[in-house]
Amino acid sequence: MTPATAPAARIADLRRRLDDANHRYYVLDDPDIPDAEYDRLLRELQELEAAHPEFADPSSPTARVGSVPAGKFAEVRHAVPMLSLANAFADEEVAEFVARIGRETGDAEPAFSLEPKLDGLAISLRYEDGVFVRGATRGDGATGEDVTANLRTVRTVPLRLRGKPPAVLEVRGEVYMPKAAFERWNEVARARGEKPMANPRNGAAGSLRQLDPRITAQRPLAFYAYALGEVVLGQGAGATLPPTHSQTLAWLRELGFPVSAEVDVARGVDGLLAYYRRIGDRRNALPFDIDGVVYKLDRYDQQRAMGFVSRAPRWAIAHKFPAQEEATVVESIEVNVGRTGAVTPWVLMQPVQVGGVTVTRATLHNADQVARLDVRNGDTVIVRRAGDVIPEVVRVIEDRRPLDRKGQPLHAPYQLPMECPVCGSAIEREEGEVVARCSGGLFCPAQRVQALFHFASRRAMDIEGLGERFITALVEFDYVHTVADLYRLTVDDFVEMKRRADEQAGVVPETVKAGKIATKWAENLVAGIDASRNTTLDRVLYALGIRDVGESTAKTLARHFGSLDPIMAADEEALRQVPDIGPVVAARIAHFFAEPHNRDVIAALRAPYDGKAGVHWPEGAPRRASEGPLSGQTVVLTGGLAAMSRDEAGARLEALGAKVSGSVSKKTSFVVAGEAAGSKLAKAQELGVEVWDEARLLAYLAGHEGA
Length: 707
Ligand code: 9MJ
Known about the structure:
This protein is an alpha+beta fold. 36% of the residues lie in helices and 19% in strands. The protein is globular. 5-amino-3-(furan-2-yl)-1H-1,2,4-triazole-1-carboxamide is lined by residues 83, 85, 115, 117-118, 174, 226-227, 294, 316.
């Protein structure tokens, strides 16, 4: 707002924009501004209305959190209104909240229940005599939509309660889509050329509002409980409610409701803020999207003393994290060429803070996605950054597309280039494939850079210090064509390469100004390269960058054949005999080793040079699955283990006869899921495959090893 704007005009403008946004969000399920922008506009309006009570209006968006139900489902009146929460963004607001409660309750340091704030869809579940009878969305807080049939399909919604439930129990909570399930869903959708979901929240909302519950049933939704609605206790044992919210959550858990494992209790502003930071630090590692944490005064008698304002309790507040979605403007659309030639379109954008990080690039994934989004130069787009996932463009705000004088879009729809921007080779897209590829192979410097980068990476040859910047320069100045050339580089080569790169960039390093030449870094790099000469077969196989040969397949191959020559000699048929290697991967491996150029590179890698040994590894005898208590069982390891590395766990399971595989399928016997397990765990749950935690693995190993 410019200071010159009159408050009345600004208030009217904000109300119109918020009404509009509300309608699109709640009724059309097609939001057009990011939540963070909505929050900012709402706060601005709240502040203006507070400063100018003369403009009060009962139909202002501030007086109505939410909006009318879409009307496709039957209406449900909530016996007890579903509350919303006041928001806090700054630590000071939390301090004010705590101080106010201290003043009004007369309790100097009251206890608070602390909860992560899930970013899903608020719902209410009604149980009569312990049986789930109705589920409704929040709607406008007073009236929601009856989505009972859809909620029954959500695995984490209990259909019958355990223990001694009261006669009537309404439980409120959030339906959400776990991040891993969301990512997997979108991966599959994109691979099929279908429309991906914008974010987990939209995924959950869209899934729950399906008129056909069978469609909802296929969506990976989950639920977690955090509040009570109407309760009629009835007779008998347990005919009283716990006196605090945190005890209620524990009680809900006993009744069979999922309650977040992250809930906690603390006192004082410092305790609350420490929780905020602790959860904030773990935000990316949590299996679900959160947009903040919630502080709730723990004692019910104190809650009653505080009461409510409009539809929000005065005894609770949501402390929000930086938003994960923001709007910004596209400056240009570019493409990247990856190791396998895959062409990935992405946008360069005006810098924007997303989730507390400045973002200037976001991926568009592939040509289909570009066409679906219709992203053009100059467009205002919504970018989303969540966890470790690369920021992505989720939609275009079409109303903000730049127009020419005739009111037509200034820019035409974007087309992927026909030629590789790096090497000029044709870009091709195979029938039925979503991904377009540069046909230049290792002739293409971009593919060479990526291939070298992969080769040198930690889990491949692990060449210390050889990062993308050096590799780019090595390729650009023609020092290396193939991975084998790395082993022929000298300290002088690196120093000379650096000099040329500095010269090109117009940089004069301090050492050069002082008339000296720094060589220590180059010596270290050569030492790093030399150290990688002594390696293992599975690392070499992985490092070669054969399409679809990841670490797990490389290990399988190394174990099965024991040495490189029989792998290079194996035909497709022989490769298909290897456990876990299917026809597509078998064909890729056979083609790779049949290619004379690749055989030359491998020969050059193994050849000694200038008095130094070539790349070498211990070769062993072929080892087929061993006999043991796990013979015939296929196991998948995922997530981090505390007691040992995944590699070690795999080796120990193999020693007991198990086959360790990299991907979960119906044939998987069980999955061992460690800390922060992601899509593999989700897949196992989806397929009903047995899941072991680390404790169970350790107990099993203890009971069977050396037996
Ligand atoms: C979420 N979204 O996780 C509440 N919420 O309590 C938690 N929401 C809430 N509590 C009262 N943890 C109204 C809303």
